[in-house]
Amino acid sequence: NPFNGCTTIPFYVPHSEKVELSIFNVLGEQVYCHISKFSEGNHQITWEGTDYNNLPVASGVYYYRLKTNEDVITRKMLLVK
Questions:
Q1: Does CATH number 2.60.40.4070 belong to domain 2-79?
Q2: Contact 25/60 with Cβ under 8 angstroms?
Q3: In this predicted structure, what is the pLDDT of residue 18?
Q4: Would you call 7 exposed, middle or buried from its count of C-beta atoms within 10 A (0-12, 13-18, 19+)?
Q5: CA distance linking residue 48 with residue 51, whole number of Å
Q6: Which strands make up the sheet holding 17-25, listed edge to edge?
């Protein structure tokens, strides 16, 4: 799933709850985090390929972790500029 610039992460929430999306670089350093409450249903969060300071991150492999009260999903992404 290579992406350039931004990527959209889709997910399903079985009931209203808080969802935390964290992005990590290959060193395991967290470069971005988004926490919001979502209602039941399908949703998506767009990551613009930026860090906490809204600066573009380098090309390379990143991991996202999508965490709810009941589940944790981790996937690999490839940012290509």
A1: yes
A2: yes
A3: 98
A4: buried
A5: 9
A6: 2-3, 72-79, 60-67, 17-25, 30-38
Q: What's the pLDDT score for residue 1?
A: 75
Cβ burial of 34 (10 Å; 0-12, 13-18, 19+) is: middle
Distance CA 43, CA 39 (A): 9
CA dihedral 10, 15, 19, 25 (to 10 degrees): -40
Residue found by looking up tokens 């999306």 in the block: 21
Q: What is the pLDDT along the chain (81 residues), one digit of tens a residue?
A: 799 999 999 999 999 999 999 999 999 999 999 999 999 999 999 999 999 999 999 999 999 999 999 899 999 999 998
How do the domains of the chain map onto residue ranges? Answer: 2-79
Nearest by Cα to 51 from 24, 80, 81: 24
- Distance CA(27)–CA(40), nearest Å, equals 34
